[in-house]
Amino acid sequence: MNMGKKISAAVLAAVVGCGLLAGCGSSRTKVDGTKTLLTVNDDSIDVGVGSFYVKYQQASMYKAYGSYFGSTGLFDYVTNSSTGETYGESMKESAIEDLEQMMLCKQHASDYNVALTDDQKTQIENAAQSYIDGNSESVQNMVGASKDDVVTLLELQTISSEMMDPMVADTDTTVTDDEAQQTSVTYVAVTADTTSSSSSSESAASSTESTSSEDASAAALSKAQAVLAAVKGQSDVANADMNTLASGVDSSLSATTGHFTTNDTTDGTVDSAIVSAVKGLSDGTLVDHVVTSSDGKTYYVVRLDKNFDQDQTDSKKSELVTSKKQDAYNALIEKWKKDATIKVNESAWSDVKITDDYGVTLKTASSAASSTEAAAESAASSTEAAASSTETAASAASSAG
After folding, report:
1. What is d(CA 346, CA 383) in angstroms, rounded to the nearest whole number?
2. Which conformational region is residue 72 in: left (phi greater than 0), alpha (psi within -120 to 50 degrees), or beta?
3. Which segments in the chain show pLDDT lower than 70?
4. Could you tell me the CA-to-CA distances from 321 to 162, 173, 267, 317, 331 in Å, in that order?
5. What is the DSSP string of 75-111?
6. What is this structure's pTM?
7. Which of 42, 109, 199, 321 has its C-alpha lying 20 to 30 A from 30's C-alpha?
């Protein structure tokens, strides 16, 4: 699907939806968005561009995770104990990397005949104006983004998104069935429950915990054996409902469908004990014994569904194609970065605070915006990079609109 159309839909969501930023009040320090933030070769962008970009990310995080973390503790959380870096600081670093990439894409856009259409420019202009019209002065002061800053960001994101396909057009994305081969299994996992074990005194703790662990392990094995017997007792084992049979033994048990490839010995998507147990079996065959996990803590009842699962193999093919495109895209970006002169105004960037004391939140968008955004998001990119750029443009535009 044409990336330009998806970006247009995202910008349109902003124009229709008026999903606005709501600030924390006028008591916060005003951000001077006119200072130069980032210079890439002969081009530069202001602090306002970067602030609008990262502040919308912050608002989106509050919307997604605020119910879990509340209004504090999310952005001040220390993610690197050795450096003391917080989650908010990490977000700012990532934002600079994203902006560098977008600027490089814009600088190389003419190499791929990528340019904004008049329609895209109009929609971006309208989205930027709606941000100015719809947000209070205190919000605009905290973000520090002018209308031109919003326009610049949306233009960078739109161009960056449209660059993905032509940048990887010459990439060899051939993936054979053998490369993508997927085996499917259904299994029930029973893990020993030792959470209730306790000792009546410190002196007896070691022996009590040991006995309790052994008892719990024996109980788990017994349940697994009961599930195995229940599945074995079915007239059509290959199509037996293992989920229902497992819950019949214990309501807390359920069946899981897993997929793995036999072409990669490091594939850890399912326990290696399961992989070994189904080796050499025919489709629809139940492993005739309870399988003990590689760490000895879990017992499995396992059925091999398909040695070669075409649907899952096709899905894996798409994943590998995406990965190849992403690798090619990343390699080209890294080459451009290596050849570029890049300067970050760290002093000016330090004025932008991504902390729990300097937060912005999202107002609820109208139903029209929600439906439009959903339509834009449903048109997901065939590659991770393009998808990421599209979603970011939709998010920033929704904030602006």
Report:
1. 32
2. beta
3. 1-28, 66-72, 194-211, 265, 362-401
4. 18, 5, 18, 6, 15
5. SS-EEETTTTEEHHHHHHHHHHHHHHHHHHHHHTGGG
6. 0.72
7. 42
